[in-house]
Amino acid sequence: MHIHKPLTDLKFNVAQLLREEVGGRRNYTFAEDALPLDDETTLRQLEGKVRFTRTATGVLADVDAQGVVEMPCIRCLAPSQQRIDLHFRDEFHSRIEVNTGMPLPKPDEEDPFYIDESHLVDLGEALREYAVIELPMQPLCRPDCKGLCPTCGADRNLGDCGCSSDGNDDRFAVLKRLLND
Predict the structure, then answer these.
(1) 92 CB-near residues (< 8 Å, 6+ apart)
(2) pLDDT at 78 over 80
(3) CA distance 128 to 37
(4) What 8-state DSSP symbol labels residue 100?
(5) What is the pTM of this model?
(6) What is the Cα Rg of the chain in Å?
(7) Alpha-carbon distances, residue 155 vs 71, 110, 149, 161, 177 (angstroms)
(8) CB atoms within 10 A of CB 66
């Protein structure tokens, strides 16, 4: 799957913070109209705040954000708005030393986030990854959604379709006969 990564305002310059002692902090707020999560899903109305704390190998990002994703309801397939709340903490590692420009060793993490050569932290990819994890597995348009009729496919939320709902399933008729014998 290819994910197109458009430019966002989710880049923060941490060059000054990297020159400070371990424990130095900076706070920022951010807002983004849309952040694509994959080819079909987009996180909209993204708003949040981030606190960067200087660490020995880069900066630690504490992020609190929220946004809205439109997904189809699993019962009736109507579009539904799902609120996504993100709360995460992850470290961004420097590739080069800020004062000398010398390369730094790779971190021990398996798939780390990096600060780029211009000392910018791009929160976009971290937000995307954490938002995908928070997507609801069974989104509903509303908690009492009645879904679609299995016989005719009518939306039961709009009214009764008139199909019989006797609950008989011909696939189990043989088993039912065995129980009766």
Answers:
(1) 14, 58, 59, 60, 61, 112, 113, 114, 115, 121
(2) yes
(3) 5
(4) T
(5) 0.79
(6) 25
(7) 17, 47, 6, 8, 34
(8) 14
